[in-house]
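Researcher: Sequence recovery benchmark, item below. Answer with residues only.
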């Protein structure tokens, strides 16, 4: 199976979260982010046309662009009752062959809260910085094991 390099969830992936909410199984969960930064951020021409000052600004790294995304999204996460549980640079790729630069784990109070944030205007405007800064990200939605068998 070929690796899919992306920074954005597909409509089907978003629908998978929505289906969990619809089943009534929603609750606290963690989103595990495995990310790889671009050496240099790459903004789309449309963004640079809309913000001409950015076109002439000094080049920024992918990590710097992602930092701008995080500066916008962090307060959104905190406002909905979430938090950053873990954020560390990858020291060594020990098993597997997919390179990564950082691991970030975010606690969310519910999948519905995540979806509401994801679809908000403020979040959608911040995505340009994430896309500009990342080669890819892999996300895993995780929840604590329960005593109930899987449905």
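Model:
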């Amino acid at each position: 199976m070929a690796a899919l390099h992306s920074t954005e969830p597909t409509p089907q992936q978003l629908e998978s979260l929505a289906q969990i909410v619809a089943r009534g199984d929603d609750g606290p969960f963690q989103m595990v982010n495995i990310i790889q930064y671009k050496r240099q951020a790459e903004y789309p021409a449309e963004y640079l046309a809309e913000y001409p000052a950015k076109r002439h600004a000094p080049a920024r790294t992918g990590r710097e662009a992602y930092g701008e995304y995080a500066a916008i999204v962090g307060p959104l996460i905190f406002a909905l009752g979430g938090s950053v549980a873990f954020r560390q640079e990858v020291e060594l790729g020990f098993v597997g062959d997919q390179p990564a630069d950082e691991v970030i784990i975010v606690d969310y109070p519910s999948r519905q809260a995540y979806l509401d944030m994801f679809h908000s205007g403020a979040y959608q405007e911040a995505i340009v910085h994430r896309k500009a800064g990342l080669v890819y990200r892999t996300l895993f939605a995780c929840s604590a094991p329960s005593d109930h068998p899987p449905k």
